[in-house]
Amino acid sequence: DIAGTIASRLSPQRTAVASKPQSEWYARQQTANTALRSSQTANMVPSDYAPGSDISQGMMAPYWVATGNDEPELFLLRVVRIRNEDLTQGVWIDWPQLRAALLASISDLLPAAQLLPDLHPSAIPERTLAGIRATLVTQDTPAAAITGLTPMRKSLLIAWSAVLVALLAIGIVLHATMELGERRGQFVSAVTHELRTPLTTFCLYSEMLADGMVRDETAKREYLFTLKRESQRLAKIVENVLCYARLAEVRAPTRVEDVEAGDLFARIAASLDRRAAESGMELSLDLAAARGALLHIDPQTVERILLNLVENACRYAADFTPPDAPPGTHPDSRIHILAATSRDELRIIVADHGPGVPPELRHKLFRAFNRAGRETNNAAPGLGLGLSLSRGLARSLGGDLRLLDHSPVSRGAAFELRLPAEVAASLSPAAAAIT
């Protein structure tokens, strides 16, 4: 039997099995864990034996005892000496139940692990349990795939998003800074170039007149007329720059009034015709379709917008002849101003018979200090503020200014000014006059 096997393996002395309370077993188990680390547990000699004492006992130690079953039985044994007589005292452990409890505690980490009895000193000491001579056998299991948005992934996503947003903000600021510097450079270059010619003319002509070098009355009148024209040009340059600077200030026009479309065109037609005549151009007006429309605007602002558009047509369309025109064809010097109503707005189109706007320049046509003459062979002077200023003024009135894809009268450029207006129902069919 099991007791006989234990007795034959440990000692020829007789064996006694003592029954102890469960609490005492736990206390002794702690003592066994310490004792197993020392060499005293290698043999089962009582550690507290002293000559002349009646009773002494050794430390509990785990032992495997082979039986007829598939696996050995586990015992915790110690030697007790009573009056020079050695007895073996021990506890039988339900190894299958203990093994199942131990493996269940690590099933989440090592689901395929096994605990095997260690009948001989283990070759892998770190795999042997401290209190029980059993070896932990594990298998290499692949790491479980992590799916979904884990807290770590969420933190990394937030961190990288913050970094990307910061980089984007830095890029936008740098781009805006570089663009601002480029615009400042363009402004200085354009203003310097435009001011140089009239100032040079002023200095030269005024010096000649003051020194009496011009004595012919006809020449004097011509010089004075040139000085007057250049002074108006200087005043216009300064006014455009100041007006462009005021566009950054978000405020409503100061001289807004209710005006009928016919009265508006009657006020501004003279100045537009005069500007066209200065460049040898002819103004062609077709405004009948817009009569009766009521606008709540600043007439001077509308006049400035249309004057800039007429001046732009004079600058680029004067003396232009299409390359495919027959020999001897005279340039068409007409500037058309057409008007119509559509829903709740007034539409004014300014078209010319010039070369038009190349497709590659359309996207930057309304940029400040951009001049089409720089990209073409046309050396037309100007600050490059006219179209940008006109669009800004149109939007300040609640309307807009855009370049039409196709001109309704020619192959030249055509700009459409849209202004909010109160249109009578009887005028609505006139919107079909211009498409």
In short:
The protein is α+β, with helices and mostly antiparallel strands and 435 residues long. It has helices spanning 2-10, 22-35, 95-105, 151-210, 217-246, 261-278, 299-317, 372-375, 386-396; strands spanning 55-57, 61-65, 73-82, 85-93, 114-117, 134-137, 257-260, 282-286, 294-297, 334-342, 345-352, 400-403, 414-420.
Structure, described:
The chain is α+β, with helices and mostly antiparallel strands. The chain is 40% helix and 17% strand. The strands form four sheets. The chain has a five-stranded mixed beta sheet with strand order 8-10-11-13-12. Helix 4 runs antiparallel to helix 5 (217-246), helix 6 (261-278) packs parallel to helix 7 (299-317) and helix 7 (299-317) packs antiparallel against helix 9 (386-396). The N and C termini lie far apart (114 Å).
The H-and-E topology, N to C, reads as: HHEEEEHEEHHEHEEHEEHHEE
Number of helices: 9
Mind telling me the C-alpha Rg?
52 Å
Helix content: 40-55%
How does the overall form come out from the CA principal axes?
rod-shaped
* Main sheet overview: 5 strands, mixed
Number of strands: 13
Give the overall pLDDT as a whole number. 76
Strand content of the residues, in percent? 15-25%
The CA-CA distance between the termini, in Å, is 114 Å
Pick out the low-confidence regions. Answer: 1-22, 37-45, 373-379, 426-435
Which sequence of strands runs across the widest sheet? 8-10-11-13-12
Structural class: alpha+beta
